[in-house]
Amino acid sequence: MGQKGRVHSVESMGTLDGPGIRFVIFLQGCPLRCVYCHNPDTWSVSGGRIEDADFLVERIISFKPYMDASGGGVTLSGGEPTLQPDFAAHIMKKCKDAGINTALDTGGYCKRNAFEKILPYTDLVLFDIKHLDPKVHMELTGKDNRLILENLKFIDSLGKKIWIRHVLLPGFTDDVTHLKKLGEFLKSLNSLELVELLPYHKLGIHKWEALGLKYPLKDVKPPSREILERARAILREMGLNVI
């Protein structure tokens, strides 16, 4: 019997979670309760299905030709993969041993020792920043952001490649003052390679309703193209590589 963990779902030919074609494993469980989450069905730590890490790695390796040809690899996402650090580390180590690029998609809310287990086998960290203001962060996620920002600085200190992900949410993260503060903070990261601005969307509302949850942003519209372009321009003018 190998290392076991809870998995929500997998995507064998993903193109949105790191470079190239990627085998994406969405692990079950998340400590944050983001008001715009499009996968609230990943929140429960007792949900999903129990999977064997070695079996998953066998599936991942079968897609290696596509990964190699595209500069892709494997991405552990969620939910929050650091909630299952031993399971995540086992998968990442086996993939590294097989010559597969590894990426960790995280919201950063976990004890440092979880990162200490996973990061030795991680090539790229996709790190979600919800908001820099602690009060707004609490409103958006239900948690304070102090631990998250400390973990981000720790990852940066290790020299790991970092891609920052930031959801552009009208009324919360699209104002000029916030974006300039975000830009100044990101400029302090030595290992930052890329900033991904992700437009808020409503594609997950049906999941909230299916779970009997009230969707808190029902009246908030996705950002316009003009708002997106303005946000990109602000961060690019500060010298950041933004897509």
Automatic annotation (TrEMBL):
One of its GO terms (cellular component) is cytoplasm. It is found in: Cytoplasm. Binds 1 [4Fe-4S] cluster. The cluster is coordinated with 3 cysteines and an exchangeable S-adenosyl-L-methionine. GO terms for molecular function: 4 iron, 4 sulfur cluster binding; [formate-C-acetyltransferase]-activating enzyme activity; lyase activity; metal ion binding. Coiled coil: none annotated. Keywords: 4Fe-4S, Cytoplasm, Iron, Iron-sulfur, Lyase, Metal-binding, Oxidoreductase, Pyruvate, S-adenosyl-L-methionine. Residues 16-237 form the Radical SAM core domain. It is an enzyme of class 1 (oxidoreductase). Its cofactor is [4Fe-4S] cluster. Its EC number is 1.97.1.4. Activation of pyruvate formate-lyase under anaerobic conditions by generation of an organic free radical, using S-adenosylmethionine and reduced flavodoxin as cosubstrates to produce 5'-deoxy-adenosine. PANTHER family: PYRUVATE FORMATE-LYASE 1-ACTIVATING ENZYME (PTHR30352:SF5), PYRUVATE FORMATE-LYASE-ACTIVATING ENZYME (PTHR30352). This is Pyruvate formate-lyase-activating enzyme.
